[in-house]
Amino acid sequence: MSKITAAITAVHGYAPDYVLTNEELSQMVETNDEWITTRTGIKERRILKGEGLGSSDLAVPAVNELLRKRGIGAEEIDMIIFCTTTPDMPFPATANLFAHKIGAVNAWGFDLQAACSGFVFGLATGAQFIETGKHKKVLVVGADKMSSIVDYQDRATCIIFGDGCGAALLEPNYEGLGVVDSILKSDGAGIPFLHMKAGGSVKPASHETIDAREHYAYQEGKTVFKFAVTNMANVAAEIMERNNLQGDDIAWLVPHQANKRIIDATASRMNIGEDKVIVNIERYGNTTNATIPLCLWEWEDKFKKGDNIIMAAFGGGFTWGSLYLKWAY
Ligand code: UT7
Hints:
Belongs to the thiolase-like superfamily. FabH family. Residues 240-327 form the Beta-ketoacyl-[acyl-carrier-protein] synthase III C-terminal domain. The longest helix has 22 residues, at 221-242. This protein has 11 helices and 13 strands. The strands form 4 sheets. It has a 5-stranded mixed sheet, sandwiched between helices. Strand 4, helix 4 and strand 5 (108-112) form a beta-alpha-beta unit. The chain is globular and about 60 Å long. With 329 residues, it is α/β, with parallel strands linked by helices. It has helices at 22-28, 33-40, 55-70, 94-102, 118-131, 155-158, 207-211, 221-242, 260-270, 281-284, 291-299; strands at residues 5-14, 18-21, 44-47, 79-83, 108-112, 138-145, 163-173, 178-186, 194-196, 217-219, 252-255, 308-315, 319-326. It folds into 2 domains: 5-176, 3-Layer(aba) Sandwich (Peroxisomal Thiolase, Chain A, domain 1), CATH 3.40.47.10; 179-326, 3-Layer(aba) Sandwich (Peroxisomal Thiolase, Chain A, domain 1), CATH 3.40.47.10. The two termini are 22 Å apart. Helix 3 packs across helix 4. The structure holds oxa(dethia)-CoA (UT7). Oxa(dethia)-CoA is lined by residues 31, 35-36, 39-40, 116, 155-156, 159-160, 221-222, 224-225, 228, 258-259, 262, 286, 314-315. The site of oxa(dethia)-CoA has 21 residues, from helix 2, helix 6, helix 8 and strand 12.
């Protein structure tokens, strides 16, 4: 029997209705459209409004539509990897809450926390369960309600983040299509530059932590930018080299959407033309775990069977990685 590979067989995404424009942000903090556009490439982002809604609620419409497109029921899913930095609650896992919401009664799952690299880590992890033959349908979800941890008084962070979700279904493939290779990295030395100061077991929530605004994402943007540019480009170049790929062999680069300047640096290092680089940052900003699957969803119609696709991401932790896959449909 031929080797089993893990192919993406369906993708879908969801972005909430509310559009937070640069114009509206410039009424909230000291900033302007020109600064945000030239420094990041972002024009607007989506925000999930309404009481009692979390990351799992972004995932429900995305996955329901994915299942409809694939023509299967939720009960057929074996496993859910829910990649998020903004879980519905500290415990239990959002994967559980979400499985219950969509009726995935036969699935087990867990949350994967790798900040902006989460979806790449999740695809690489899910692929292993398909490759062993143990599972037939693994759902990898990337969802974040970043607006729940963004400080809208901090102009250096509030301008980049937005809310959204994207999901991909992995199934066995016998033609060599799907995930070919991945390189995943992490380095805890990056913690001081991007983290949330309170709310964990080290510093539980208290009046003091709330007064000090420590339940928001803290980022030293310049340092993160420097590491992101170098590491995302390096890991993308490394996966090309070890798979003997030149720029011309790549059909699409799907980069994490944190800053247009980081995307441009990665594409240039890979020697890939602009027309092959997927960018939607101007409409969604940085949706953390959702950036890459939102891109897959929006470009799905342009992909062709056999296309070589490289994903690359960098995020808090630090975490970073790249993944090489052959599109399967
Ligand atoms: O998702 C994965 C991890 N995250 C990232 O990859 C994000 C990486 N970092 C970045 O994208 C950029 O660092 C930011 C977009 C966050 C910030 O851009 P920057 O070019 O690094 O700006 P900066 O923080 O170095 O600030 C430069 C100047 C400062 O003014 P002075 O000190 O030069 O007078 C800031 O106070 O720009 C000022 N500034 C702003 N001005 C207008 C910072 N934020 C704003 C703002 N509007 N929103």
